[in-house]
């Protein structure tokens, strides 16, 4: 089920002339029986609403005073989301002849005829307030308080996000919350600007239109709405002709495959970054600790402590939190079992809350190997909104590969990568004759559309990432290690990672240190083995400076390395 909640305006939407019809009440009851939540959102004062609304019991929460209050009908608890109105404001408005005036717990309201006076008074008093118009009413609220902010607060209390929500409204003050809903709906008699912004317009007005929407939700979860929701789609890159390539954020599974060092984690991080920017919750299963530095992602676990399933689920209960589950503390052989325990719990959480919206599984060939026999019993029938990242697509369990909708082949041999996927899944691959590898491109195969693969220039992420932090800092680079030998080859000191490099650099003789520095050996190692162009460029600049003492060059390079890879003190 994609849409887990309905957020509905009251006057002019659910209600006509202040009352909700019996037929609309029965429709709301059917919606609740379907397992969905219902939030009422209104500009009315809470006491006023409770006096006229006979079906308060059907709402999980009520957002009143245009976002100023959240009310729980079951417990009768009220949560104020703004400060009480200024007595000076109310008194000044009355002195200026503003009548009638409604004073709520957060809101001050009057009729539209007094709009200019209200704005003048707010300006003259120097108050940080906003004036909102809605049909024949004018409302004064704290800055930043509107139906959208009230809806966000209510959803968070229910453990939902805006992406599980269908919203329906009719008037000016509904703009803010409808823009935040995954699917915005306007009743037939809504004002033109609301109808223009809506993905769906009902055939009937007010409560009849709401019933129409509820019946469609129960029938097929609004499956017919697709392109109307393109504003939520995620940019992947551009084709050779400049056409944008976008990923629908619902109902798709992606495989990113290619050789080690080809840029898979960088591409994945850019996609994750854009998903987060649109408020989709992400859970990354991170075997090598590569994603812990992503902005707005909390890293759980490290090489000394393995995370627990309970910790993962607890943190993901907050819709605003994105998580990277670092499995370095688990032996390689134990990771599939951990994943087998985690996935059913995530699947149950998704059924209840719709989150996490996307699951990213790095090193998928280790986590879901083709030889692993628990796939069918552990995983849901079909993966949902998952990105698999792997060097070996043909080593991933076939039942998982069969759920893939989009394959992104990265690296110098994309044809071979797609061929391995094709052979593993039994899908016919028609490789275009004019398609060839280009260093700045990846190859995308959208399997379901029946069209051949095409070249795409990926859209880069906003933030620079450093790949495989732990591998380069503390791992064993083996044949990519650095060797301190000196001008006469007297030494053969192996630095298999950056930690050892910095330790040897501090103790090696000045002659040996300068020998490698002036020859550019350090910068070449950083560039080609560590694959860190920034670190290489900065080291080159230090090597060319003759105003620095040898000890200063050592210190500066060590600080550069430490700042980017968080070396031990």
Quickly list its features.
single chain, Rossmann fold, 8-stranded mixed sheet
- How many helices does DSSP assign? 21
Q: Helical amount among residues, as a percent range?
A: 25-40%
How are strands sequenced across the largest beta sheet? 14-13-23-22-21-15-20-19-16-18-17
- Major β-sheet profile: 11 strands, mixed
β-strand amount = 15-25%
CATH architecture of the largest domain: 3-Layer(aba) Sandwich
Question: What layout of secondary structure does this protein have?
Answer:
Blueprint (H helix, E strand, L loop, with lengths): L4 E5 L12 H12 L3 E5 L4 H7 L8 E4 L4 E3 L6 E3 L6 H9 L6 E2 L4 E4 L3 H11 L3 E6 L2 E6 L4 H12 L6 E5 L5 H6 L2 E4 L5 H6 L2 E2 L4 H15 L13 E6 L4 E4 L5 E5 L6 H14 L4 E5 L11 E3 L8 H8 L6 E4 L8 H19 L4 E4 L2 H4 L7 H4 L7 E5 L7 H4 L4 E4 L4 H12 L16 E5 L7 E5 L10 H6 L7 E3 L8 E3 L2 H10 L2 H10 L1 H8 L4 H12 L5 H16 L4
Parallel strand pairs: 1-2, 1-10, 2-3, 10-11, 11-12, 15-20, 15-21, 16-18, 16-19, 17-18, 19-20
Antiparallel strand pairs: 3-4, 4-5, 6-7, 7-9, 8-9, 13-14, 13-23, 21-22, 22-23, 24-25
